[in-house]
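User: For a reading group we're discussing how well predicted structures match intuition. Take DUF1501 domain-containing protein. Before you show the prediction, I'll give you the sequence so everyone sees exactly what went in.
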Amino acid sequence: MSLSLQSRRRFLGGAGSAVACWHPVWQALWSAGVARAAVPPDAGEYRAVVCLFLSGGNDSFNLLVPHSGPSATHEDAYAEFAESRGALALAKEALLPIEPRNLPGRGFGVHPAMPRLAEMFARGHAAFVANTGTLVEPLADKSEVAGKKLPIGLRSHAVQAAQWQTAVTDQESITGWAGRIGDLLGGAGSPVPVNLSMAGSPVFQNGVGRGALVVDPVAGAVPLKGYTAAYDPEDELANAASDALDQMLAQAQGHHLKQAVLEARREALRSNAAYAAAAIGPLPGAVSFPDTSLGRQLRQVALAIQGREALGTLRQIFFVQLDGFDLHADALAGHAALLGQVDAAVGAFWDQLIAIGIAKGEPVEGQVTMFSASEFGRTLAGNGSGSDDGWGGNHFVVGGSVDGGKIYGSYPSLALDSPLDLGRGCLIPTTGCDDYFGEFAQWLGVTVESLPQVLPNLANYLPEGGSFTPLGFLGRPGVPVNTQSPTLTEVDGVVTATPGEWTGAPASIGYVWYLNDVLVEGATDPVFNVPLAAGDRVFARISATNDIGTRTMKSPVFTMPGPVSLALHWTDRADNEAGFVLEWGKDGTTFPNIFEIAAGSSHTTVTFPRPATYFARIKAYNAAGESAYGNILTISAEA
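Assistant: Thanks. Here is the predicted 3D structure of DUF1501 domain-containing protein, as structure tokens, for the group to look at:
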């Protein structure tokens, strides 16, 4: 007798590429040395950036106000502020005091409508970037204005908003810096693009390869009216219209423009369907978002972050917007109301990130960073009850990876007619937008070699032979960093986690385990020996801690395999058997599993409990006795 076995395997694979733009001015920079982001992404680590655009020109020198100590031009910085602002000055006792850790001897105050932001700053989860604005090249003071290139359309709302979103200040651009990041980092095969907008279609997220998926803040992904991807027995009209559209989209076009339009429509349908399936509630933690435009937008962002694994991308860039900051009149009351909306929505969003992290077993708040943007600041001097369009302004950054409690950049003197004042307190920025944006790009994983494709003006800021140096507000230097991802091994249903390799001298490694995406209470050892059934999913969250902080990595997911059925065949050279006995085992020596098979058979199907290597042998029998065993067959049972 002889036994033989056949099996079939299926291999799946795919490839994609990203398209990006090119700017030749950076060629000389490439050999100048590599700049290092504070904490680059770990392999397989999710990260997201949320741009909060305050449209109209935020009066940000009432957002972040000198409170105590001197300025560069006055022994009492608050008195200088009050004198310059006149009727627009906030009362000192109303401000929420903060003490920046990097500016000893100077105190500041946050607008009284923003207690959550002040609290996050004090806890180290928020920072400010001072006097930032659009530049073509650095300006030391107003004496250099005549001899330097200035951004086109200064103090124009539309032009300056576009420049904040494109990072191109000397000409118009049809792509935004987030769109260019998406071109570099976005997987071509992912169903949903890197960029998602909850506020229309900003140029910020236009890329060469892909644009943004525009999402309704309340409804989420809005389907094409009258289109159904599956047959609807209740709506024959929709079925007919959908079939017609499908046939149109499936047609090949000889004209490149027509083909591009059809592909854009196909991608929109795919992205919409994928988003609708992934970004669904409920959200954990019973967090209450305010019922405001910004509250609804940020709640939708939270849904997308919660569904990020189903969306299939490790990088996401979101755009949200609040209008109304162009306050030429009634500025104090109007600004307080707007900042109150911002504070409530940002505070709820922060709480929701923490709740998602608890539910998923990872510090999601450290994987998401929000930053404010606005086309410009406003004049220090008022025009009565309001202020006019300015230039430089202050901005905030919020997130668990923010090295917070600090003010980055250079907070200027607020004296009127200072060297930075172009008139009535319109201040020249001391930090260019490119320095601000570059840190987000690197934190998301853009290399210094690729920064020219994202920020073409940045070369103008670099000293000869120098390279880009981040301001430092992202990342907590010294926290452990995973350099080789965790792994899982499984033997007979017992799963063991290996933490991988970490830098930063972790003092301890912690483990928490999830079974079918649910936290297993008390499972804190590297070995998980809870009984598993076929199809059970197991993964570990592995945290490395030192005296500076903690970083967490998710292990791969192990899925407990199910049984494998294989057909075993043999050749019978006798004609007088009463039957057969098939025996199999796992070690090739003992064969504890015994099956009787009817005479005249030449094959049978055996169900093995899971994929593994097994050994089988067979013999025949009749009334006179048993035959010798046939050869021992080695069986590689694969799923």
